[in-house]
Amino acid sequence: MNLGWWWRLFAGALAGFLFFHGFAATETAPNYSFMYDATSASTLSYYDYIIVGGGTAGCPLAATLSQNATVLLLERGGSPYGNPNITKMASFGAALSDLSQSSPSQRFISEDGVINARARVLGGGSCINAGFYTRASDEYIKQAGWDGRLVKESYQWMEKSVAFEPSLGQWQSAVRDGLLEAGVMPSNGFTYDHIYGTKVGGTIFDQQGNRHTAADLLEYANPSGLTVFLHASVHKILFAIKGKRRPKAHGVVFRDTTGAKHKAYLKQGSKNEIIVSAGALGSPQLLMLSGMGPAQHLKSHDITVVLDQPLVGQGMSDNPMNAVFIPSPLPVEVSLIQVVGITHFGSYIEAASGENFAGGASSSPAVEYMNNLDETTFRGGFILEKVMGPISTGHLELRTRNPNDNPSVTFNYFKDPQDLQRCVQGIQTIEKIIESKAFFRFRYEFLSWPILLNMTANAPLNLLPKHYNPSMPLEVFCKDTVMTIWHYHGGCQVGKVVDLDYKVLGVDALRVIDGSTFNDSPGTNPQATVMMLGRYMGVKILSERIAN
């Protein structure tokens, strides 16, 4: 048996998988009259609300607040619209493998040695993710202290324009049926809801394969109430301190692509606020750059301390993901995440497939293995497991005072033994799926389970040293092959950095509304809930504004 060929197949397919979650846009770009490049911004301007970050939360938040206030939305990236290479789901790969300054994705490598990415585009992570759309559980909503009725209304507000039911092909159907054979019961059919068992979830790709992002939600904005500046890099939040009981946020400094400095201030009014929605890396980073964070750390970067807040940047978590590639003797459909198994032991099982995994993976660590490989060698798919929560946490620190530079982040994957046990049980479930009757025709008999695991363990998945061989326990496999599924969160958590209304503790007129506030990742995949939170808090803030 020549396993060298299979290794080349696997490495090439893996290379594509690492960069498979590409970037696309609706075919017809909306004509947003309120969207400009930051070079056209005036030196000084005034608004009721200033939102930093036009991402998955920032876009629905801005659209909502613009209905009854003047809103400035500042996005460091460009528009998701108009790029012919990124319109269709079949054109995956271009974004996450693009390391240029103009890329909608900015790569970073955590101190753990795991390759990761953050969004740099209007629409945020919804432009570069796998598109899976699923709600948070009822328990999560209750624990967050959210109003269940408004949460449901907020989800539905988005779903009418960005969520769709996927068409299941044969391979995804085999994964679904294999999950049921493996005991991940019951079968819950198609639903957005988070329910134990196996289900088909939603997707932000329509039936024509076009991606619909959070940027599309700006169609609901009041054009006369919203100004969006692209390529606007916010360097710091400005605070009024003199004569104040405590610091009050009252403006921001941002720069355009020429380096020109602009200042935007809040108009007079007790309800006016600055809202940071820059994501789990960007939000704690900006707070630190603005003088809020651990005092000694800020002083080491010559940053004037506005508020000594040691919990900024703490509680960073990234849900560990481990995957197994299964070469297929049969052609398989191109598919992203469509089916999910929600287990009782705390692992979520998902899958992706296709013959064009390698498309666009020009900068993968495995790219050398892809050269001269025939397209048919990429037949197959990945079945992955993601640990819920997770329990393990790390921290974020500044590397430089440049907001465009990545901060240093440590996630401490599998530091908590329960996370590791959930991974082991998830991998054991994947084995049951692969061995199921439903999945039988999509695998080669001679590629046994130990061989499949060994192929994964020897692939260049991350920058960690390799230890695993088939005689070792699955705990070693989990640690050696850990990857990200881009669901990292924390850094500005509720109860630590912000209160239940997402107001930053210790200062006035400043909120953080995005995934950096989460203590756990919501649902199996968080994007629906991050979008929901933007809409939800927009409605709440406006209702408070009108009431007073």
Automatic annotation (TrEMBL):
Signal peptide annotation: 1-25
One Pfam family, short name: GMC_oxred_C
Residues bound to FAD: 121, 234, 486-487, 515, 526-527
Residue span(s) of domain Glucose-methanol-choline oxidoreductase N-terminal: 279-293
Cofactor: FAD
Source taxon at top rank: Eukaryota
Family recorded in the similarity comment: Belongs to the GMC oxidoreductase family.
Protein name: Protein HOTHEAD isoform X1
Organism this protein belongs to: Gossypium hirsutum
